[in-house]
Amino acid sequence: MSEITEFIEHYTPSGHERIAFAWNGKHAEEFIDANQSFRWTVVQECLANSERVPLPLLENLFLADADWAVQAWGAPGHFAPLGGALLVRGGSAALESFSKGFNASFDTFGACHEIQLPESLLPSLITSVHEMQEHVTDEHQTARLDSTLELFQKLQQPNVATGWVKIVPGTEVSDIQIVRPRWYRKAWEWFLRKSS
User: Fold this and answer.
1) With contact defined as beta carbons under 8 Å apart, do 66 and 100 qualify?
2) What is the pLDDT along the chain (196 residues), one digit of tens a residue?
3) SS3 180
4) Contact 117, 88 (CB under 8 A)
5) How far apart are CA 194 and CA 161, in angstroms?
6) Following CA atoms 60, 64, 69, 70 in sequence, which dihedral angle do they give, to the nearest 10 degrees?
7) How far, in Å, CA of 102 to CA of 144, rounded?
8) What distance lies between CA 125 and its chain's CA centroid?
9) Residue 90 and residue 95: Cα distance in Å, rounded?
10) Lower CB count within 10 Å: N or C terminus of the chain?
């Protein structure tokens, strides 16, 4: 049995530190996530055999990659399939973790528009989100659930990814502009920081 297979089959919360996002605090070429290589190898094995993967492992992988996406300014190519595996494996029990990872950044939000779920699963997920919404008082959780519900409703239609473009590493770009806030916006933000 390989190290990866053993890690997956015997996963416990103590194994979380091996797959957690372990960032060095830097960006661009200096960006390092010490656990990325191991975590992504585990993800590939999990995607190949998701029916036997413990739900807590799928949740922790998904959330670690969401943390990665926030700092790396992009989402890993496997983010949507991992989110799909999480929802198929966990159903309603995975909704809280899914909504956190899905809404972690613009990139995770966009990536999940490529998610593929069985049509038969969507009605129960939508019902579960509605039930969760009835008991939520935290505005951040409410916003996450609203966004998650909207995604599931879009997934019931064939054109869910319309308007989203995926740019893979190595794609040549040109005519890039840096957008900066106008001076009065900067002054207002400075005023708000000083007054709080």
Assistant:
1) yes
2) 699 999 999 999 899 999 999 999 998 889 999 999 999 999 999 999 988 899 999 999 999 999 999 999 899 999 999 999 999 999 999 999 999 999 999 999 999 999 999 999 999 999 999 999 999 999 999 999 999 999 999 999 877 777 777 777 778 877 766 666 666 666 767 777 776 5
3) coil
4) yes
5) 42
6) 110
7) 8
8) 17
9) 8
10) C
**Which helix (H) or strand (E) is 102 found in, with range?**
helix 95-102
User: How far is 168 from 6, CA to CA, in rounded Å?
Assistant: 32
* Structural tokens at position 14: 């103590």
Rounded distance between C-alpha atoms, residue 70 and residue 106, angstroms: 8
From CA 111, how far away is CA 160, in angstroms rounded?
11
At 177, give phi and psi (nearest 5°). Answer: -120, 140
User: Any idea which residue has 């972690």 for tokens?
Assistant: 104
By the 10 Å C-beta count (0-12 exposed, 13-18 middle, 19+ buried), 174 is classed as: exposed
- Sketch the domain layout of the chain as residue ranges: 3-171
63 contacts: CB under 8 Å, gap ≥ 6: 97, 100, 101
pTM of the predicted structure, to 2 decimals: 0.84
d(CA 13, CA 64): 14
How far is the first Cα of the chain from the last one, in angstroms, to the nearest whole number?
57
- Which residues make Cβ contacts (< 8 Å) with residue 31, sequence separation at least 6? 23, 24, 71, 72
